[in-house]
Design brief:
317 residues, alpha+beta, Immunoglobulin-like, 3 domains, seven-stranded mixed beta sheet, five-stranded mixed beta sheet
């Protein structure tokens, strides 16, 4: 079912609705004030809305409206909502009653993070009408939800910035999450910074491209095996300080392009998981089976085979 109201991040649309009682008769709001209450239950408190809600004229028809400010719609997601009415005599009531409204703030295309596969690709693979948008949020949630499980198999795909601490005492450290360099990959591994600590004192290391540029405090990344080697003057190799957790590395890791086999596996994973969330039949047994399936995000055998060429050793973190 579509949301009661939808807008995009940064949107300033107006939410208009009519309040009715249990017999579907419009509420008389003469002399009343009204406020919109908006909250995601994953947040500690309701959204602090910037504007006031309004009672529309004539008040006897129960019409209310709220015009969102850009600051109200900063965070994309699904929100529960109520209209809170304070009548002239001081009584307070919430509508709808019972239940809540559903307000959806859709991600902005300019700010939405990169994903493994796009929504249009999913719709084409599933044979869905592109103009049918009532399941867009469900599909986007699946696309986002499967990424951690897939990257646990393949290593990082979407390039992100990481920071790690390592023990010293050796001439090199091994980064925890380098990208896969197998067939069909376009690995991205950039060392953004590296420092070592000698006691309480930090010594930033110059990141060099080859040993010829080595200085007393320098290091060099091997982008193929994900190691950072400590260099010194003249390009010689020297150990990091012999201390625990004394080397901090900041780097970006991922793939320049989502490998074709990973993209195809994503499409199949969404297809299978979308099917298992659909109705299985009538009765308590069918409902329990459906709930059981929703507890686990399934990676089907066919998708596992597609991911295998890009798989790497499991993460140690």
């Amino acid at each position: 079912m579509p949301a009661d109201f939808s807008t995009h991040q940064g949107g300033t649309d107006t939410f208009i609705t009519g309040l009715v009682d249990a017999s579907n008769t419009p509420i008389d709001l003469t002399g009343a004030t009204v406020a919109l209450l908006l909250r995601s239950l994953t947040s500690l408190a309701p959204v602090q809305l910037a504007n006031m809600a309004e009672v529309m004229t004539p008040a006897t028809l129960g019409g209310v409206q709220y015009t969102f400010a850009a600051s109200d719609t900063v965070t994309a997601g699904n929100y529960m909502a109520n209209w809170v009415v304070t009548y002239a005599g001081g009584q307070v009531a919430t509508y709808p009653n019972p239940g809540y409204m559903w307000v959806e703030i859709e991600p902005s295309l300019t700010g939405e993070p990169q994903q493994l596969v796009s929504l249009p690709d999913i719709k084409e693979y599933l044979g869905l009408d592109p103009a049918q948008r009532n399941r867009d949020h469900e599909l986007l949630t699946m696309i986002e939800g499967m990424r951690p499980q897939i990257e646990d198999i393949t290593g990082p795909i979407i390039p992100i910035k990481r920071q790690e601490w390592h023990d010293g005492g050796q001439t090199f450290i091994e980064l925890d999450r380098p990208p896969n360099t197998g067939m069909g990959t376009t690995p991205v591994l950039t060392l953004l910074g590296c420092s070592e600590w000698r006691g309480p004192i930090e010594y930033p290391l110059l990141v060099i491209q080859d040993p010829a540029h080595g200085s007393i405090y320098s290091c060099m990344l091997d982008p193929y095996d994900g190691t950072v080697t400590r260099h010194t003057a003249g390009g010689a190799v020297t150990p990091f300080p012999p201390q625990e957790q004394c080397v901090r590395a900041t780097y970006q890791s991922g793939q320049a392009v989502v490998p074709a086999n990973v993209r195809q596996a994503c499409l199949e994973i969404v297809r299978v998981n979308l099917r298992t969330t659909e109705s299985l039949g009538k009765g308590m047994q069918a409902e329990m089976e459906q709930l059981d399936q929703r507890r686990v995000f399934t990676i089907p055998p066919g998708a596992e085979r597609m991911l295998k060429p890009t798989s790497r050793a499991p993460s140690i973190i």
